[in-house]
Amino acid sequence: MIEIEGITKRYDATTVVDDVSMLIEPRTIAVIVGTSGSGKTTLLRMINRLVEPTAGVIKLDGADNRSLPGYELRRSIGYAIQGHGLFPHRTVAQNIATVPVLLGWDKARIKARVDELMTLYQLDPEAFGPRYPHELSGGQQQRVGVARALAAEPHVLLMDEPFGALDPIIRNKAQEDLLAIQKRFGTTIILVTHDMEEAVHMGDKIAVMDAGKLVQYARPAEILAKPASAFVETLVGASEKPFRLLSLGRVRDAVEKGTAEGEAIPGDASQRDALAELLWSGRPALPVKGDDGKPLGRVTVDGLVKRAARPA
Amino acid sequence: MKEAGVKTWLPSLLRLALAVLLVAFVTNPGWFEPLLKPLTENNAPVIYNQGSLLTLTLLHLRTVLIATVAATIVAVALAILVTRPAGVEFLPLSRSLVNIGQTFPPVAVLALAVPAVGFGEKPTLIALFLYGLLPIFENALTGLTTLPANVVEAARGAGMTGWQRLTKVELPLSAPIILGGIRLSVVISLATATIGSTVAAKTLGEVIIAGLLSNNLAFVLQGGLIVAALAVLIYDGLSAIERYTARRMGREAQ
Questions:
Q1: Which of A306, B50, B131, B204 gets the most CB atoms within 10 Å of its CB?
Q2: CA–CA separation, A162 vs A148, rounded Å?
Q3: Is residue A76 part of a domain?
Q4: CATH number for the domain harbouring residue B139
Q5: pTM of the prediction?
Q6: Cβ of B148 and A88 within 8 Å?
Q7: For A123-176, what is each residue's pLDDT tens digit?
Q8: Rg (CA), chain B
């Protein structure tokens, strides 16, 4: 649980973050969205005290984050940034081991943890461990960056546009990987982005920031349905709203009774993908299959269109 | 392919030949007597005869080494100090101090230092030390202030203390640039050390000065050539170390 209470940051006369309060539930993903200069990165950096607030308190599991020296606090919080910031003079394994080494873990434990994370991120420890960051592709570097942030088993992971430098295909994969890992470790993640698509896709809750103020903090469906201001509405993108709303739902939740012709779509796919497939193939309905491959029913264009409408 | 091959081994071969010649000359200068003979008049000695060239070469190198090590320690320490938040205000002051060290002619330093510390190696060390500070300081400053921002940010975010960031990230990443400064400083000092012999320091300058005093071109030439060969070889050697560290620090692409 992360409690942010009345946090303000001023540089001389400019207020960068203005009296922000929000509560982040444990084991959830909170996404902070906003344009550049909205104060979202500063807010994130005040959680691990890379920036000291002018006023206000941030509590992690009830404890004020100023009760420890800054560097000790930061060792207990994962931190991943855009462009990964890997140490170019250290091998992949040494990079991932950074925080455990600072914490003084013994060698065997560090090696076990590094191997575990590399395997989890589909990087063979034998092959990639001794390599240097510049020998890896962009996507691999990004994975090492996140693995390094997770190395000391932090409860909280802060991410500042971690996928910003990736091409769209690798970005999708990186997002899926992160969601899977978040489920596995139960880490609380706070992610900063300017991409509403990413926010809707990743966030359990979305915090919209504008000019240092927290404009709206709510579940993605609510942000889409009831934007608190014209600014949020613009950020969401009026023409994108129905599709974003659909992207939140799984096909299995939109299943109707009956059968349809053609290849089945998995129940875990998003409703937006199903609608896209329907429109593209010009069919009125698609069969749906479960994880075990058994048919669950079908989805129809009409049914999905109803779901894309503004919720009451 | 064949041409590229020649290009890569030819410089190494030339360097090796130069090194062999240099060692042969300082250990057995007599072998080269016929070559230098035409430069002398009136049956003057061809090879320097008031001391061993080998000893003078080693003493010359020792003087340069001591001065450079001292200059490196002071210049790097100063650069570290002024790049910490607490030391930023000393940046202009240290810059001017180091600049004065460079602009003050070494000859003048010798003249001023002799009354204070006496004749011999000491005034030379002082002059070389002051003269060598600037390149090392400026390079260390460049290295420490042009580190990739997200790497430094990641080091802070991982929970490194200021000292850990300096020793584990900032200094290793600046090492190639700092080495570049040391290389410049060493080459300047190798040449400048010769004037130390005007105040009785044992350097290769002794040979050159003896040649000038007795109008013996052979002496001047042999002293000058040994210093030049040393400078070329040491410059190349340090450049190679620099390239190697740059590769290790992943800075080659920049």
A1: B204
A2: 13
A3: yes
A4: 1.10.3720.10
A5: 0.81
A6: yes
A7: 999 999 999 999 999 889 999 999 999 999 999 999 999 988 788 888 888 898
A8: 22
